[in-house]
């Protein structure tokens, strides 16, 4: 596709625009300078931010100039949540998270090529503005009756908590960002999730008021889980991009377990697969959903994008070892720990019989039941069939000295953990 706007529409990445016809024409005649902001209100970006990074990546590949803004100043304030006031972070904590997010963004965009992306921090242009200048030069252009209509602000005004002036001023600060980037870099397009529409529009209105210029806004739909909740830290179901906060194994498994009803949408949004490739996977979802080919493709591509090919191969090897007949002894310690962390099981001491281990991990209700399972050939230890009830767990059976894997049949997997 040569029309980037058409591609974004096909991929389901366009929720709202200020003027679709004008934006389509501007993108086609470009290049435009576009920005998206990421606030350091947590030490890592998450699923929702990934959608925006992929959007910026597509626009950069289409030849447009990308500004990636990390909110050193807006992060000190915090975008108002509909429920309650945010706990303000210290300047030191915010600065640390700014650095982490700047580093996290690097792999998604090209900062060195012929059309390099640029990283900017809004603290650089707000720290020197006095309160009087801010109120006179920026605040003058905002109308309170318009500001209180924003969804999050309206929700807070109607709650018992109310809203502080600090959070109420957030949209003014974000509007200032767009104005500054318009003046400094000729930026004429801001992107964000659809729930940021009001904040983003504030910047476009500020540019129109101060500069007499029309600029563009594009928002993406909110992607939700099977219960209809958006993925995000405020919802308590965040899929973090930081490997220390959400391991590559857990990340890979998250995509493997995506519902059939959601997988094609996610393939369009998050991968570079074309129409024909996605049509084939969509057909497989309809005809052979039990194979989960679309989910495995999604998991491989997105995990590689975020964590790299090595981490993806480790996650795939762990899945094969745990749920098929792969070599569990070949798993590295971190992947093994992540993959078994939430498995049911129990503490089983070295030297215990396999019969006792089955009872202690909950696989069997009694020693007699455990013996029957072994005699029937239904028990394996580290993917090796157990042939005698007299077998005992040795030190060598505990992978990396931590855990032995006991499987009943094909799917019932438990962890015998060393005390």
TrEMBL record:
A motif ('KMSKS' region) lies at residues 230-234. GO terms for biological process: tyrosyl-tRNA aminoacylation. ATP binds at residue 233. Residues 353-414 form the RNA-binding S4 domain. One of its GO terms (cellular component) is cytosol. Pfam families: SYY_C-terminal, tRNA-synt_1b. Belongs to the class-I aminoacyl-tRNA synthetase family. TyrS type 1 subfamily. This is Tyrosine--tRNA ligase. It comes from Allobranchiibius huperziae. The lineage of its organism: Bacteria, Bacillati, Actinomycetota, Actinomycetes, Micrococcales.
């Amino acid at each position: 596709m040569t029309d980037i706007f058409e591609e974004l529409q096909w991929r389901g990445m366009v929720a709202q625009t200020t003027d679709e016809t004008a934006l389509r024409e501007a993108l086609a005649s470009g290049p435009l300078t576009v920005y998206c902001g990421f606030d350091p209100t947590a030490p890592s970006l998450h699923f929702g931010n990934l959608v925006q990074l992929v959007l910026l990546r597509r626009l950069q590949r289409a030849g447009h100039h990308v500004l990636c803004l990390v909110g050193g100043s807006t992060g000190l304030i915090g975008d108002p949540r509909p429920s309650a006031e945010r706990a303000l972070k210290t300047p030191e904590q915010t600065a640390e998270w700014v650095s982490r997010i700047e580093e996290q963004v690097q792999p998604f965009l090209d900062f060195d090529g012929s059309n390099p992306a640029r990283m900017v921090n809004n603290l650089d242009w707000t720290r020197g503005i006095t309160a009087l200048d801010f109120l006179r030069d920026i605040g003058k252009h905002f109308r309170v009756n318009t500001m209180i209509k924003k969804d999050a602000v309206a929700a807070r005004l109607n709650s018992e908590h109310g809203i502080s002036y600090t959070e109420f001023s957030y949209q003014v600060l974000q509007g200032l960002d767009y104005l500054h980037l318009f003046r400094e870099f000729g930026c004429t397009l801001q992107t964000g999730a659809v729930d940021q529409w009001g904040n983003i529009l504030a910047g476009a209105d500020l540019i129109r008021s101060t500069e007499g210029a029309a600029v563009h806004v594009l928002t993406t739909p909110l992607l939700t889980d099977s219960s209809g909740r958006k993925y995000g830290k405020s919802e308590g179901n965040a899929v973090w991009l930081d490997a220390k906060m959400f391991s590559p194994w857990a990340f890979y498994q998250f995509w493997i377990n995506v519902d059939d009803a959601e997988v094609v949408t996610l393939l369009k949004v998050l991968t570079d697969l074309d129409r024909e490739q996605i049509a084939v996977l969509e057909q497989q979802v309809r005809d052979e959903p039990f194979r989960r080919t679309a989910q495995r493709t999604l998991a491989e591509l997105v995990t590689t994008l975020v964590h790299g090919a090595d981490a993806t191969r480790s996650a795939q090897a762990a899945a094969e070892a745990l749920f098929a007949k792969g070599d569990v002894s070949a798993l590295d310690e971190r992947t093994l720990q992540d993959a078994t962390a939430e498995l049911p099981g129990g503490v089983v001491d070295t030297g215990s019989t396999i019969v006792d281990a089955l009872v202690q991990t909950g696989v069997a209700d009694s020693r007699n039941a455990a013996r029957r399972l072994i005699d029937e050939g239904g028990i394996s230890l580290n993917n090796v069939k157990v042939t005698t009830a007299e077998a005992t767990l040795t030190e060598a059976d505990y992978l990396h000295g931590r855990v032995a894997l006991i499987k009943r049949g094909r799917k019932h997997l438990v962890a015998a953990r060393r005390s």
